Amino acid sequence: ILSFCMLFVFFPKGAEEWRVVESFFCFLGSLMPGSGAVAGEMGSELLEIRPRELKFAFELKRQSSCSIQLINNSNHYVAFKVKTTSPRNYCVRPNVGIVLPKTTCDLTVTMQAQKITPPDLQCNDKFLVQSTVVPFGTMEGDLNPNLFSKENGRFIEENKLRVALVSPPHLLILQPVKGALDQEPASEFPVLKETPILEDSPGVKAAPVSKESPLLKETHIPRDQVPSDMNNLHSSHVAKERDKNLRAKLIHLESKLSEADRSIIRLLNEKTLAIQETHKLQQEVI
User: Fold this and answer.
1) What are the two backbone dihedrals, phi and then psi, of residue 240, each rounded to the nearest 5 degrees?
2) Is the per-residue pLDDT at 224 higher than 80?
3) pLDDT confidence of residue 88
4) Which of 159, 161, 26, 47 is closest to 104 using CA atoms?
5) Which of 88, 97, 107, 278 has the fewest CB atoms below 10 angstroms from its CB?
């Protein structure tokens, strides 16, 4: 292997061969004990990671995702692997891969739906990003689990990422409690009821409104009194309808009684005439 490398060093054929030799030497250096010093000469970090803290918008029974960006500012092929202290709660895609020189790799971390809200949204979960230099032209299929093992003295750079749970944006809106938001600017809460335009306000001209307008009277009814007023109106309307029906029934009964009285008087008169005729016939017979 050393002879092969020396041939490339003393007889380079082009820029491509130089990159192969450089990557191969870096790979050999990472396999040798004390290779941490070699990596230190290469640069402060193999991969620049953004962000260093993963923030998830926490909602019960809903998934939440965030992104990680791996930036390779070096001229080497860098392999990475992502681990977490809670593998059942998170899914990382991709969790293993290679970042080519002068390129970036975007990862998506998904937190599974949770059934319990942590106290004060505190979370002790952590992520570990391992990275190491690999030979030029290495493919993702060439990676194996032993590549990120430190037992053989290989230099493995490790970066720990913290997890933070935050409330979703729509849950951060403060709700008015006992008029606590009355001190906020009117422009942030454009509620017409709480920000009336007065006629005496400087620079504001009120539109002419008729004093007898029924709409103006209705808009001045307090909201807490509207239900009771509506109930009273409904009750009075029902009472009027009931009275109207009762009056109609009384008038009908009175007409029936009057007709019955007339019938009784007529029958009594007919009875009297019949009695008189009977007496008259009796006297003629005698």
Assistant:
1) -65, -45
2) no
3) 95
4) 47
5) 88
Q: Which residues contact 93 (CB under 8 A, 6 or more apart)?
A: 107, 108, 110
Contact of 183 with 59, CB cutoff 8 Å: no
How far apart (Å, rounded) are the C-alpha atoms in residues 196 and 199? 10
Under a CB-based contact definition with an 8 Å cutoff, are residues 131 and 47 in contact?
A: yes
CA–chain centroid gap for 66, Å, is 16
Was domain 2-169 assigned CATH 3.20.10.10? no
Rg (CA), the chain: 48
Q: How far apart are CA 48 and CA 203, in angstroms?
A: 57
Q: What is the mean pLDDT of the chain?
A: 75
- At residue 101's C-alpha, the angle toward residues 96 and 105, to 5°, is 40
> Other CB atoms closer than 10 Å to residue 111's CB: what's the count?
22
**Around Cβ 72, how many Cβ atoms within 10 Å?**
22
Tell me, what amino acid is at 80?
A: F
Q: If you search the block for the tokens 């409104």, which residue do you land on?
A: 209
Model's pTM, two decimal places? 0.49
Above 50 in pLDDT, residue 41?
Answer: no
Sorted by where each begins, the domain ranges of the chain are: 2-169, 238-280
- The whole-angstrom separation of Cα 189 and Cα 195 is 9
